Amino acid sequence: MRVGLDIGSRLVKVAVTEDGLSYDRRLMPTARFYEQAVDRSAGTEGGLRLLPEALGLPPRAAVVATGYGRNAAGLAGARVVNELSAHARGAAAQTGESRFVLVDFGGQDTKVISVLDGRIADFATNDRCGASSGRFVENMAAVLGVTLEEVGGTTAEAVALSSTCGIFAETEIVGLLAAGRPREELCAGVLLAVVRRTLPLLARMPQDKLFTSGGLAILPGLNRLLARESGREARPLPDPLFNGAIGCCNLACSKA
Q1: Is the pLDDT of residue 206 over 50?
Q2: Could you give phi then psi for residue 63, rounded to 5 degrees?
Q3: Residue 106's pLDDT is what?
Q4: Which residues of 172-196 are buried (b: 16+ CB within 10 A; e: fewer)?
Q5: CATH for 11
Q6: Cα–Cα dist 190/185, whole Å
Q7: Is the residue at 10 inside a domain?
């Protein structure tokens, strides 16, 4: 059995495979993962030992971990890989492609990865500002009083937000609501703000095949605006949320 762990800032994604072809998927809140699935008294070098039974795993499963908390976890017995490698491998495994660009919309950052001939050729990250992250969209949805699905499902023409800061964007949206702008247009504006923060990262990666992953990749409005603004078709991966965990599983199977 091979296990991939993508330890995100809010959710831990778990992918389990026996054959490297099909995957069992599980989600656990990150806080609960640290409370229930690791042992702090084990005396390991990293201070933490994975408790496989808490995740419904056998004790001798081969575990590969990545994500926001991979180093903080310091999980004894788990092989740790960087997020770029995990997501690139996951996208290749899910699509069968060897030349593509992947945009991963994470909870706290956005990663753009160029893959040529199955290897990472270039990458760019926006990890210093949350304005192009899943958290930004969730926060703006709360301000608008709508669900994330409602934000992502809008087909309205987007209101261009002038602020590039998540904090100031909230104030701007409240002002636009007070001025009578429709919620649907503001929802589209939030997605457009994410896309326009991502375009500079895409500029130096010219491959036509563009895939998206992460929690925001399930939002059709985001993919539609990314395609319109970038001039390339933007397709979500078959399983965008678990892509990092699937990549870890694939790395565990290949031992690459």
Answers
A1: yes
A2: -115, 130
A3: 86
A4: bbeebeeeeeebbebbbbbbbbbbb
A5: 3.30.420.40
A6: 9
A7: yes
> 68-83 burial by CB neighbour count: b if 16+ within 10 A, else e?
bbbeebbbbebebbeb
Q: C-alpha angle with apex 127: 124 to 130, nearest 5 degrees?
A: 125
Give the domain range for residue 27: 2-84+244-254
Q: With contact defined as beta carbons under 8 Å apart, do 227 and 234 qualify?
A: yes
Give the Cα separation of 42 and 108 in Å (integer). 30
Would you say residue 72 has pLDDT above 50? no
CA distances from 60 to 40, 50, 57 (A): 19, 11, 8
- Tell me the two tokens of residue 157: 């023409």
Give the CA distances from residue 92 to residues 1, 52, 116, 133, in Å, rounded to whole numbers and listed in that order: 21, 27, 11, 23
Residue 142 tokens read as 């709360």
Measured from the Cβ of residue 56, the count of other Cβ atoms closer than 10 Å reads 10
Residue 244 is encoded by which pair of tokens? 């990092």
Q: Which of 251, 239, 256 is nearest to 86 (CA)?
A: 251
- Distance separating alpha carbons of residues 212 and 91, to the nearest angstrom: 9
In the predicted model, is pLDDT for residue 234 greater than 80? yes
